[in-house]
Specification:
Elements: H1 15-29, H2 36-43, H3 47-50, H4 57-80, H5 87-99, H6 106-116, H7 120-143, H8 148-168, H9 174-189, H10 195-210
Helix pairs in contact: 1-2, 1-4, 4-5, 4-7, 5-9, 5-10, 6-7, 7-8, 9-10
Length: about 210
């Protein structure tokens, strides 16, 4: 709340504060809702304060796109590159994205994909992001000995399943998602689940199971 202050005190907010507010409005109402005056009102700042941080609305939208690219595509790729003793453990590293909003923001991905339907340049960027994500997952499978075509099919199966979850707005508790993990693993990798690897994954997320709002 540090970016909110009464008008007339010289406080212009921060760049990250404006981006955070733009993010919230994007999630709530789509890109059409992200406009300078409503943002200023939301932050209780003057409209002119915006221009201390951004040259125009397009610059703010570019900052939103950069945040999405770094958080969602960047984190997903990094998760596929983590060292792991087996393909199942590697896939569990990727699954961290699906159950950890700080790693992968599904609401943001959904809003960005909707935005891309009306913005050709963003559509191109999203197509590149989809391709980069699938490429990273495919490379992960290939590192564990899967042939190129099989790795590609398995990578697409994993990614398109998650895209479907997001596109359909599927609501599933973390506990329910974790119960499904062993079957998902065997479906996606063709390998039986190692209880030790599964326990390590669940342990990473147990605190959120006990306190889902925390």
């Amino acid at each position: 709340m540090d970016d909110i202050a009464p008008l007339g005190r010289g406080w212009r907010g921060t760049e990250s504060g404006w981006i955070d507010a733009a993010y919230a409005m994007l999630i709530e109402g789509g890109v059409e809702a992200v406009k300078i005056q409503p943002l200023a009102k939301r932050l209780r700042l003057s409209r002119t304060s915006f221009y201390w941080h951004f040259t125009d609305r397009e610059a703010l939208l570019a900052a939103l796109i950069a945040r999405w690219q770094e958080k969602n595509t960047g984190n997903l790729i990094r998760q596929t590159e983590l060292a792991a003793p087996s393909i199942n453990a590697a896939v569990l590293n990727l699954f961290d994205c699906w159950v950890t909003p700080n790693l992968f923001d599904a609401d943001l991905d959904h809003a960005m994909r909707n935005w891309a339907r009306t913005d050709p340049s963003l559509k191109t960027a999203f197509d590149c992001a989809d391709a980069a994500r699938v490429t990273a997952i495919r490379a992960m499978f290939e590192r564990y000995g899967y042939a190129a075509e099989e790795a590609d099919i398995r990578a697409n199966a994993i990614y398109l399943t998650q895209v479907g979850y997001i596109a359909l707005g599927t609501e599933e508790t973390l506990e329910a998602r974790l119960r499904r993990i062993p079957t998902y693993l065997e479906t996606f990798t063709g390998k039986p689940t190692d209880p030790t690897e599964l326990q390590a994954f669940v342990a990473r997320h147990r605190a959120r199971m006990l306190n889902p709002d925390g």
